[in-house]
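Hey, can you fold this?
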Amino acid sequence: MVKDDILLYLELSCNIHLDIRQNRKSIFNIYTLLVFLDKYFKGVFTQPMIEDMKLIFSKVCDNVESKLSEFDEEHDHVNLLINYQPKVSISS
C-alpha cells in the first residue's frame, strides 16, 4: 500500500508517468549509460556486428533482471541505456 501511494505521489507531483520499477523491498528508477568504442575511432562496427551486439546485450540484461531501454549505434561507437535493479553491481 505504501509503495502504491509513493508511486501515485511521484506521478502526480512530476505530472508525468515515470518508469518506476519495484520489487519486494524497494522502489527504484536507476539508469546507466554505457558507451562502447573501438580503440582508434576507425569505424569498425558493421551492421551485422551491431545487430549481434544488440541481441547479446538484451540477453545479458534479461539474465540480470535489467532492461535495455535504448540502443543507439554509430559506425564508431554504441550507446546502451540500461535500467537496472539496485542489487545489480555495474562495476563487477
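Oh, and this one too while you're at it.
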Amino acid sequence: MHVIDIGMTLAAVVTQYPPHVFFGYTISEWLGIVTIIGMLGSFLALVFNRFVVKPITGSVDRLSDEFKDFRKSSHEEHESFHNILDDHEDRIINLERNDAVQDRVLDELTPHQTKENS
C-alpha cells in the first residue's frame, strides 16, 4: 500500500504541474506568443525605420550638405574681405608715406619760425 500511495501522489503532482507548462501555457503556446511578439516588434521597427528614421536621416544629410556649402562660401567671402583689407592697408601705408614726404617738403620750403621771431 505504501507504494500505491507514492504512485498516487506522483500522479497527482504530474497532473497538476506537468513539466512543460509554465504559468498555465504549454511550451508550444509560449513559442507562439514569443513568435507573435517578435513579428509585431519587427513590424513596428520596420514602420518606425521607414516613416521616422529615414526622413530624419535624409534631412540631416541635406542639412550637412548645406553646412558644407555655407562653410565653403563663407571661406571664400572671408578670403575676399581679407584681400580687400590688405589692399586698404597698402593704400593707407602709401598715403602715410606720401603725407610724410609732403610734410618734409613743406618743412623745407617754408621758413622756420623760431622763438626769437615770435
